[in-house]
Design a protein that fits this description.
mainly beta, Neuraminidase, 2 domains, four-stranded antiparallel sheet, 2 helices, 20 strands, 13% helix, globular
Length: 290
């Protein structure tokens, strides 16, 4: 009888132990499935260029062609021409005094740089010795914290969006146009990013303007989608020409500690820049998976 009791107890222990192990493995597996694998699912980094110390605070980039990208950093009034093939700065162009410069875009021989208070610097013939700099004033201010700027070649206008609160203080952030013919901000947004959109439900904050912080904007040269980068929440939004949010991609913070600039080459390759924290600042070529 004693032997029988020992056998029964041993069997019970095996059953209980197996159940605990099974539960633990199931829990572990479930956690693995639920943890987003950013770089393996939504996008793929195909190339990385580490920036030199002068571009540690890289805040904006714009494609020039011939494997060159125009870059700015948020302290000095200097445009840096970075060569991806040679992996180095090829030229430094001074256009203004020190300031909080956050975005850059190129229209042929002219460059446009956004300062965080909404003042846009137009640098005519920016790669020539006789370059001329002038200012385009807008109704934005430092309260809006402007960090985005893109030249829309199809409509000959600059496009920007507030990082912080919109001009209207409503529950959206508008895409605003500055036609180069008038150089006057159109107070009516061409599109609106509604902070209550179901596509942003996962990121929605109690104070709605904190749901999405646009850090830069560009239009894909082939699909004509708007790509809008959020450097604070490390996300990338794809927006249709009609204003529909088609996709919101979460970026891995280890790969993109502070992404603040994006641009496209003529053939549609996407480049995203990130400021340096623990690691060096970088420009990355990114492939968005369908």
């Amino acid at each position: 009888m004693r032997v029988f009791n020992i056998i029964v107890a041993a069997i019970c222990l095996l059953i209980i132990g197996g159940g605990i192990v099974g539960f633990a493995l199931q829990h572990k597996y479930r956690n693995q499935i639920e943890t987003p694998q950013f770089s393996q699912s939504s996008y793929k980094i195909t190339n990385t260029w580490k920036m030199p110390g002068k571009l540690k605070e890289i805040s904006g980039i714009s494609w020039l062609g011939n494997s060159k990208i125009a870059c700015i950093e948020d302290e000095d009034g200097v445009i840096f021409i970075y060569d991806l093939n040679e992996n180095k700065i090829k030229e430094e162009i001074t256009f203004g005094d020190s300031g909080d410069y956050e975005a850059i875009t190129i229209n042929k021989t002219d460059a446009y740089v956004m300062r965080s208070d909404g003042v846009i610097f137009e640098i005519k013939n920016f790669q020539d010795k006789d370059l001329k700099t002038s200012k385009i004033e807008t109704t934005f201010s430092s309260k809006n914290d402007m960090e985005s700027l893109f030249y829309d070649v199809k409509n000959d206008q600059l496009i920007t969006v507030c990082k912080y609160k919109d001009l209207s203080f409503e529950n959206y952030k508008g895409l605003y146009a500055i036609p180069l013919k008038t150089k006057q901000l159109n107070p009516t947004p061409i599109l609106k990013l509604h902070m209550k959109d179901k596509a942003l439900k996962e990121f929605q904050k109690k104070k709605l303007y904190k749901t999405f912080y646009p850090s830069d904007i560009a239009i894909h040269p082939k699909t004509e989608q708007y790509y809008i980068l959020d450097g604070r929440n490390t996300t990338l939004m794809l927006l249709s020409q009609t204003g529909k949010i088609e996709k919101v991609i979460e970026l891995d913070e280890d790969e993109f500690p502070q992404p603040e600039g994006l641009t496209f080459s003529q053939d549609g390759k996407l480049y995203i820049s990130t400021e340096g924290r623990k690691h060096k600042a970088a420009i990355m070529e990114v492939e968005i998976k369908k």
